[in-house]
Amino acid sequence: VGATGFTAWREIMPRLLAIGAQGSPHAWSEPFKSYYAAQIGGGYGGVPIVEGVPGHVDGVDASDYVIKYGLLTLPDTPGFGMNLCL
């Protein structure tokens, strides 16, 4: 997600789905990339698995992302569901 950005994935996902394929943006190295990849999957479908990178970033509250029984629940709040802690 970080190297290609959201715009590229917004173009790629509909093309993959049109041919019956699935995709999953590579998310290693930063905790937010896993959340971004999950949001792409939530928006387009066709993302059967999200590469998980556990971690915490000071100053950002991402606690609305909940993993339970191996499933990640996405928040439906603005800003990808992450709040700045000032």
Counted by DSSP, the helix tally is 2
| Number of extended strands | 4
Tell me about the biggest sheet?
2 strands, antiparallel
Strand residue content? 5-15%
Provide the gyration radius in Å: 13 Å
Q: How does the helix and strand content classify structurally? A: alpha+beta
Mean pLDDT level = 89
The rounded distance between the terminal residues' Cα atoms is 26 Å
| Main sheet: strand order | 1-4
Helix content: 25-40%
Low-confidence stretches: none
Order of helices and strands: HHEEEE
Described by the principal axes of the CA atoms, the overall outline is globular
Set down the secondary structure blueprint.
Blueprint (H helix, E strand, L loop, with lengths): L4 H14 L12 H14 L15 E2 L4 E3 L2 E3 L9 E2 L2
Antiparallel strand pairs: 1-4, 2-3
Report on the structure:
With about 90 residues, the chain is α+β, with helices and mostly antiparallel strands. It contains 2 helices and 4 strands, in the order H-H-E-E-E-E. The protein has helices spanning about 5-20, 30-45, and strands spanning about 60, 65-70, 70-75, 85. The strands form 2 sheets. Strands 1-4 form a two-stranded antiparallel sheet. A two-stranded antiparallel sheet has the order 2-3. A hairpin with a 2-residue loop joins strand 2 (about 65-70) and strand 3 (about 70-75). It is globular and about 45 Å long. The chain starts with a helix and ends with a strand. The mean pLDDT is about 90.
